[in-house]
Amino acid sequence: MGSDMIAACGLDCGSCEIRLAPTDPDAARCVIDWFKHQGWLSEDEGLAEIIERGMYCNGCLGDRDVHWSSDCWILACCVDQRGLSHCSECEAFACDRLVEWSQQNDGYRDALTRLRELRAATGSGGSS
Questions:
Q1: Which of 9, 20, 73, 126 has an alpha carbon within 20 to 30 A of 62's alpha carbon?
Q2: What is the spatial distance between Cα 65 and Cα 51, in angstroms, rounded to a whole number?
Q3: 15-54, pLDDT tens digit by residue?
Q4: The pTM is what?
């Protein structure tokens, strides 16, 4: 997986069903079912409404109108304020706030691990 498929926070965009939904029927079915379960789509709605409403994602460096979490604090800090692609590029990596975020669940823990691996692979210094 190339770093272009890693979110600013380290999540793996390459396998993200929300990103894949517009072009992958299996991913679309999963997302549609989840959105209906959450009450974000009615029973008669589907992929057309997801696309029309921009309820998918092109990644952290993509169009914010179709970003799953365009108000994400990590996205704002990393991309908007610091002009970076990933938190691993930051001189303050891994900041306390990112470490605290990573402790919420296994997926976020994996994301931080991915960022640490990316940082090690690029030879960046700093705290971790």
A1: 126
A2: 11
A3: 889 999 999 999 999 999 999 999 999 999 999 999 998 8
A4: 0.76
52 Cβ neighbours under 8 A, 6+ residues apart: none
Output phi, psi for 12, to 5 deg.
-85, 105
Angle (CA) 4-55-77 rounded to 5° is 50
Residues with Cβ within 8 Å of 42's Cβ and at least 6 positions away in sequence, in order, are 36
Return the pLDDT at 2: 46
Cα 50 to Cα 40: distance, rounded to the nearest angstrom: 10
Q: Which amino acid is at 83?
A: G
CA atoms of 1 and 78, how far apart (whole Å): 21
